[in-house]
Amino acid sequence: MNGFVGQYEHQMDTKGRVSLPSAFRREAEGDRFVLLQWEKPYLTLFPELKWLEVQQRLLEFRRTDPQSWNHVRMVIAQAVEVSPDKQGRILVPAVLQEAGGLEGAVLLSGNIDRVELWNPETYRQAVEGAAGDLQQFAHKLFG
Fold first, then answer.
1. What whole-number distance in Å separates Cα of residue 113 and Cα of residue 115?
2. Which of 18, 21, 43, 54 is most buried (CB neighbours < 10 A)?
3. Residues pairing with 42 in the sheet
4. Cα diameter, the chain
5. In 3D, which of 8, 13, 134, 1 has the Cα closest to residue 85?
């Protein structure tokens, strides 16, 4: 099956490492990822191939729109490359832990071509707020 699907909740250890589910590691087709926060309040983990697409778009913005140079700098400055260790854990740097409100439990949620890392309570509040629209969206999607 293609795409990151499902949700997993894992504890972040005291060193800032969190287990990347084996299903997500298999789906990535490699062990290199880029982790960043491009939208609050969660972090996004891009597998290498998807990040290469994003990187090409960033280069295009930089090449064609001089006003976006600082935006590109801001995105790149807080992005980090991560790779799972032998136990399948990735290190979430302290600055990104703080940005995502992550401590203790971390919800890793598949979102087709990327993985989102959420504070579980923040996720529940954000998603439950949109739950009323799900039925209407589901009818559009599934027919």
1. 7
2. 43
3. none
4. 46
5. 13
